[in-house]
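Field log, afternoon session.

UNIT: design team B
ACTIVITY: writing a sequence onto a fixed backbone
BACKBONE:
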C-alpha cells in the first residue's frame, strides 16, 4: 500500500464498489466536517490502467462530498488516497486505515501539537504517517500550522476559520498574515476566505476591464469577453498593470497640479482607513490618498489628514486666533533616514576633499578662510568620519575616493619623514617643538610641495555634512561619478518609495517610472540596478548619478534634511554659470 494525494479529476468510482452505478449518495452528514477539516481518512483506490487515473474501491461518500465542496469553492486540494498493490485485501486495508485515523484526534490543531511532540522525540514524517495511516503530505500540512501566527491558530481551533482558509494562510508571509488578521479582527472589514483568500494572497490573475483607469482602446493586448458580452477581462495581466500604473501616475500628477499639497499612493492591497483620518479641505492642507486593490480597482480619497495631523493643525489655528501663543510648529518629517544622510554626508565629503587635492589654489584659500573665521587659538582637527553602521563603514572603505585619499596621506607623511604617523597628518594635540620642526621642514620645501600639503590639510580637516562641503563641491563642479558608483549600501538605505520612483525616472524616463509607480521600493530599486547593469532585458545606462550625490545637491522629496539645508545656505554664493 502506498499513501499519496491524488487530484479529484483523476479519480472515479470502481465497478467493484458495491454502490457503483447508484445515484449520488446523501453526504449532508459528513459535508460540514470535510468542509471544515478536509478529508482525513484516505480513500482506498487502485490504478485503472490509464496513466495517472485511479478508481475508488472504498470511500465513495468522501469522494462525493469532496466533489460538492469543489463545486462550491471552485477548487479543492488533492485527496489523501491509499493505492492498493496486487494481493492487497481491500477490507483489511480500509479497516486498518479507519482504526488508525480513529486514534488520531480529529482536531487539526491537536494533530499539529501531537506531530510536533513526536518530531521532538525523534520521529520522522514518514514514520508519523505510517503510525496513523495517513499521507506524509497530511503530516506536513499539519506541521505547516506552525507557520501561522498564534492568534490565527487560536481562531482555527475555535472553529472561526475553515480548513481551506488556513491551508492558504500557511503559504502566506508573516506580513501577509498580519494584514489578513487585521482585516479578520476588524468588524468594519471583510477578510477574504477560501478561494478568495488565495486570490488575495497571490494578487489574482483575472482582472475585469471595469477597473481600468485608461481608455480600453489604448490597451494593446487582448481582451477576453464572457459568453454574454457583458464582462471583459485582460488576457495579459502584466500589460494591464503597466497601463494602470501609468494612469495612476497621471492621476497623481493632475491632482498635484490642481493644488493638493500631497498625493499618497498606498501599497497595493492596503486599505484607506477612514476612521483614522479626518476630512480636511485642500486650502487647509488636506491630502489625497489613492488605494489600489490586488484586482486593479483604484479609489481616490480627496481631502483627508490623519487624525494626528488634523489635531495638530487645529491646535495651531486655535493658538493663532487666541493670545498669539500658538504651539511651535512641528519639524518637518525627515526626507530620509539618519543612516542614509550619514552615508551621503561621508561619500560627498570623500569626493569633495579629493577634488581639493587637485586644486591646491582653492584649498589654500579655504585654509585661509578657516583661519580668518575661527578663533585666535585655532585648533586643527582631522574629520573623524564617524559611521552609523558597519555597512556604511565597509562602503566608505571601498570608495575609490577614500582609497585615493589614503594613498595621498602616505605620500604627505613621507614629505615630513614621519610615515609612522599614518592615521592623520593634522594633529590637535601638538607641542612647540613639533610645530617648530614642521615649520623647519616646510621652509625646506618647494612652493608646489607646500601647496600640496596645504591642500591635503584642508581636505583632511574638512567637516563632513557641513555647508563648506557643499560650497567647495559646487564651486569645483565636482562630478561624483569619477570616484563613486551606487553600491549595495546606497540601495539598502534608500527606502522611501517616492525617492526611488524619482530616481527611476532619472535613469529610465518618466514613462517607466509611471508604469511602476505602485510597485514596492524593492522592485523599483531592482529595475534601477537592471538599467545600471544592462540585465533582465534593460538597456544599460552608463554614468548615471542620482541627484543625492550631485553638486548642487538635489532632494527628491519634501522633508527635513541637513544636507539640503546646507546646500541652500550657500546657493546664493555660487550662482550657476
Amino acid at each position: 500500500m502506498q499513501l499519496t494525494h491524488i487530484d479529484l479529476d483523476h479519480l472515479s468510482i470502481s465497478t467493484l464498489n458495491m454502490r457503483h452505478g447508484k445515484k449520488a449518495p446523501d453526504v449532508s452528514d459528513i459535508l460540514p466536517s470535510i468542509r471544515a477539516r478536509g478529508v482525513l481518512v484516505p480513500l482506498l483506490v487502485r490504478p485503472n490502467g490509464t496513466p495517472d487515473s485511479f478508481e475508488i474501491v472504498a470511500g465513495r461518500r468522501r469522494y462525493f462530498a469532496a466533489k460538492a465542496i469543489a463545486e462550491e469553492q471552485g477548487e479543492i486540494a488533492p485527496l489523501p488516497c491509499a493505492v492498493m498493490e496486487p494481493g492487497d485485501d481491500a477490507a483489511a486495508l480500509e479497516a486498518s486505515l479507519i482504526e488508525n485515523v480513529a486514534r488520531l484526534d480529529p482536531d487539526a490543531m491537536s494533530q499539529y501539537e501531537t506531530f510536533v511532540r513526536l518530531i521532538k522525540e525523534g520521529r520522522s514524517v514518514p514514520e508519523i504517517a505510517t503510525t496513523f495511516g495517513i499521507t506524509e503530505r497530511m503530516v506536513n500540512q499539519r506541521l505547516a500550522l506552525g507557520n501561522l501566527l498564534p492568534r490565527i491558530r487560536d481562531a482555527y481551533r475555535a472553529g472561526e476559520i475553515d480548513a481551506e482558509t488556513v491551508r492558504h494562510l500557511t503559504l502566506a508571509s508573516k506580513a501577509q498574515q498580519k494584514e489578513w488578521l487585521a482585516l479578520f479582527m476588524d468588524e468594519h472589514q471583510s477578510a477574504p476566505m477560501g478561494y478568495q483568500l488565495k486570490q488575495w494572497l497571490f494578487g489574482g490573475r483575472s482582472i475585469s476591464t471595469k477597473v481600468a483607469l485608461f481608455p480600453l482602446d489604448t490597451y494593446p493586448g487582448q481582451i477576453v469577453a464572457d459568453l454574454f458580452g457583458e464582462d471583459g477581462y485582460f488576457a495579459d495581466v502584466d500589460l494591464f498593470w503597466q497601463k494602470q500604473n501609468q494612469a495612476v501616475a497621471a492621476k497623481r500628477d493632475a491632482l498635484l497640479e490642481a493644488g493638493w499639497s500631497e498625493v499618497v499612493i498606498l501599497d497595493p492591497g492596503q486599505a484607506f482607513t477612514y476612521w483614522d483620518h479626518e476630512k480636511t479641505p485642500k486650502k487647509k492642507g488636506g491630502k489625497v490618498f489613492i488605494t489600489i486593490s490586488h484586482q486593479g480597482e483604484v479609489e481616490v480619497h480627496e481631502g483627508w489628514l490623519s487624525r494626528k495631523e488634523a489635531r495638530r493643525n487645529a491646535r495651531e489655528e486655535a493658538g493663532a486666533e487666541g493670545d498669539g501663543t500658538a504651539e511651535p510648529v512641528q519639524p518637518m518629517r525627515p526626507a530620509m533616514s539618519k543612516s542614509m544622510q550619514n552615508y551621503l554626508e561621508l561619500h560627498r565629503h570623500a569626493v569633495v576633499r579629493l577634488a581639493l587635492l587637485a586644486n591646491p589654489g582653492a584649498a589654500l584659500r579655504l585654509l585661509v578662510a578657516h583661519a580668518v573665521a575661527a578663533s585666535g587659538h585655532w585648533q586643527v582637527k582631522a574629520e573623524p568620519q564617524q559611521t552609523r553602521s558597519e555597512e556604511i563603514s565597509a562602503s566608505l572603505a571601498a570608495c575609490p575616493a577614500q582609497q585615493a585619499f589614503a594613498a595621498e596621506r602616505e605620500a604627505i607623511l613621507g614629505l615630513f619623514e614621519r610615515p609612522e604617523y599614518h592615521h592623520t597628518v593634522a594633529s590637535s594635540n601638538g607641542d612647540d617643538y613639533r610645530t617648530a620642526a614642521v615649520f623647519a621642514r616646510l621652509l625646506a620645501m618647494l612652493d608646489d610641495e607646500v601647496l600640496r600639503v596645504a591642500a591635503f590639510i584642508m581636505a583632511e580637516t574638512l567637516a563632513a555634512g557641513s555647508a563648506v562641503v557643499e560650497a567647495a563641491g559646487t564651486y569645483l563642479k565636482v562630478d561624483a561619478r569619477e570616484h563613486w558608483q551606487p553600491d549595495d549600501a546606497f540601495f539598502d538605505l534608500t527606502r522611501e518609495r517616492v525617492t526611488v520612483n524619482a530616481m527611476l525616472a532619472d535613469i529610465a524616463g518618466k514613462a517607466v517610472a509611471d508604469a511602476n509607480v505602485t510597485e514596492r521600493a524593492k522592485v523599483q530599486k531592482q529595475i534601477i540596478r537592471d538599467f545600471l547593469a544592462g540585465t533582465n532585458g534593460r538597456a544599460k545606462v552608463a554614468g548615471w548619478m542620482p541627484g543625492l550625490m550631485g553638486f548642487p545637491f538635489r532632494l527628491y522629496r519634501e522633508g527635513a534634511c541637513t544636507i539640503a539645508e546646507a546646500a541652500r545656505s550657500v546657493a546664493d554664493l555660487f550662482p550657476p554659470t
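LOG NOTE: The longest strand covers residues 298-306.
NEXT ACTIVITY: expression trials, pending approval
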